[in-house]
Design brief:
Elements: E1 3-8, H1 17-30, E2 35-40, H2 42-45, H3 52-68, E3 77-80, H4 86-95, H5 100-104, H6 107-114, H7 121-135, E4 141-143, H8 149-166, E5 174-176, H9 211-219, H10 237-250, H11 254-260, H12 266-293, H13 295-324
Parallel strand pairs: 1-2, 2-3, 4-5
The structure holds adenosine-5'-triphosphate and magnesium ion.
Adenosine-5'-triphosphate binds at residues 8-9, 18-19, 22-23, 145, 147, 182-184, 193-198.
Length: 330
C-alpha cells in the first residue's frame, strides 16, 4: 500500500465542523487504501506561546478527536510529533539546505508577522520542521488543505535539492486533495471558510460545544432573501453551505436534497441540518470523553503509534546523516 501522512496542530479546545468534515472524515476513508500515519503536531504548536498545561490537554484531546472520528490506531499509526526525536534531528540537516530568502517568502509567516504576532525563530523555520516530519516517513502522498500547499512545495523542493546533492534519500511526496473534500463555510459569513482563528463564535461550529448551542447557531445561519433551496455558491453561498453540510452529514447527494426541499422553506433545511449536526456530534463527543477519562490508555495508544513511526523515522535519519557525512554513533 502506498504511504500517506498528515498531521494537525493541538491549537484549540475543539475541532470545528470544517476540520471534521474537511480533514478527519477523509483521513478515516484513506486508511483503507493507504499505509497511513497521522500525528499531533505538538512541536509546531510551540511556535505560539501557550501554557504547558494547555498544550498537554490539547495534545491528548487532538489525538482523542482523531480516534473518535474513526481513525483506527490498530491500522494507522497515531502519534505525537515530539515523540519522534528524529523529527528535530533531520530538521537541522534540512534547515542547512534551506535559503533564508525562501523562508522569508512563506505567506503563513508573512501573514502571521504582519498581524503583529511576535516572530520567534520557530515560526520562521516552521516549514523546515514540516518538511522533516513529512520526509522522515517517505510518504507518497500528503493530504493537505489549500492553506498548506506552499509548505508542501517547499518540502518537495528541499527533498529534490537534497537528493540532487547527496543521492536519492527522500521520496518526493505529492499533495493529495481528495475528490470529494467538503469545504465548510462560516455560518455568518458564508463566503469565508469556517476557521478557528478568523470566524466569529456565531459562525463557528465547535464539535465540543453544547449541542443545543450548535443547533441554535445553525438555525441562525445567514441565508439570502430568496426562498428557493438550490445549490449555487456564487449567488446563494449560505444556502449552498447548508446543503453541503446536509449532504455530507446525511450522506445524500445535493441533487436529491434539492428535490426533497423543493417548495419548502429555509427553516426546514436549517432544522434538518441542526439535527444532523447534533446526531453526528453527540456520539463523537461521548467517545472523546471516554478516551480522555483514561489518559493512560490514550498515552499507550500514542506510545504504540510512536514505536511504529519511530522505526521508519530512524532508518531515514540514519540514511540522511550518512548521506551528508556524519559518522555513525558507536
Ligand atoms: P486556522 O484558522 O488557525 O488556520 P483552521 O480552522 O483553518 O485554523 P487548521 O488547523 O488550519 O484549521 O486545519 C486543520 C485541517 O482542517 C486542515 O486539513 C484544513 O485543510 C482543514 N480545514 C480547516 N478549515 C476547514 C473548512 N472550513 N472546511 C474544510 N476543511 C477545513
Ligand atoms: Mg488553516
Amino acid at each position: 500500500k502506498p504511504r500517506i501522512l498528515s498531521g494537525m496542530q493541538p491549537t484549540s479546545d475543539s475541532l470545528h465542523l470544517g476540520n471534521y468534515l474537511g480533514a478527519l472524515v477523509n483521513w478515516r476513508t484513506l486508511q483503507a487504501d493507504f499505509d497511513a500515519y497521522f500525528f499531533v503536531a505538538d512541536l509546531h504548536s510551540l511556535t505560539v506561546a501557550t501554557d504547558p498545561e494547555v498544550i498537554r490537554r490539547r495534545t491528548r484531546l487532538t489525538a482523542a478527536q482523531f480516534i473518535a472520528a474513526g481513525i483506527d490506531p490498530e491500522r494507522s499509526a497515531v502519534f505525537c510529533q515530539s515523540h519522534i526525536r528524529e523529527t528535530t534531528e533531520v530538521a537541522w540537516v534540512l534547515g542547512c539546505q534551506a535559503a533564508v530568502g525562501e523562508m522569508n517568502r512563506m505567506t503563513q509567516f508573512k501573514d502571521k508577522t504582519s498581524k503583529g504576532q511576535s516572530a520567534n525563530v520557530g515560526l520562521f523555520t516552521y516549514p523546515v520542521l514540516m518538511a522533516s516530519d513529512i520526509l522522515l516517513y517517505n510518504p507518497q502522498y500528503v493530504p493537505v488543505g489549500d492553506d498548506q500547499r506552499q509548505h508542501l512545495e517547499i518540502t518537495r523542493d528541499l527533498a529534490l535539492r537534497f537528493n540532487a546533492r547527496f543521492g536519492e534519500v527522500f521520496e518526493v511526496p505529492e499533495g493529495y486533495i481528495p475528490k470529494e473534500s467538503a469545504r465548510i463555510m462560516d455560518l455568518q459569513d458564508p463566503t469565508s471558510k469556517m476557521s478557528k482563528s478568523s470566524s466569529s463564535p456565531k459562525g463557528l461550529l465547535d464539535i465540543m460545544d453544547d449541542p443545543a448551542r450548535l443547533a441554535k447557531k445553525v438555525r441562525s445561519a445567514v441565508t439570502d432573501t430568496e426562498a428557493e433551496i438550490r445549490y449555487d455558491v456564487e449567488r446563494k453561498p449560505g444556502v449552498s453551505n447548508l446543503l453541503v453540510m446536509a449532504s455530507v452529514l446525511g450522506d445524500t447527494p445535493i441533487a436529491t436534497l434539492e428535490q426533497q426541499y423543493s417548495g419548502r422553506g429555509y427553516g426546514d433545511l436549517k432544522k434538518d441540518v441542526a439535527e444532523l449536526v447534533v446526531e453526528t456530534v453527540t456520539p463523537f463527543r461521548q467517545r472523546i470523553d471516554e478516551l480522555l477519562d483514561d489518559p493512560a490508555e490514550l498515552d499507550g495508544i500514542l506510545a504504540r503509534g510512536a514505536e511504529r513511526a519511530g522505526e521508519v523515522a530512524l532508518a531515514t535519519r540514519d540514511a540522511v546523516f550518512d548521506a551528508v557525512g556524519l559518522l555513525p554513533a558507536g
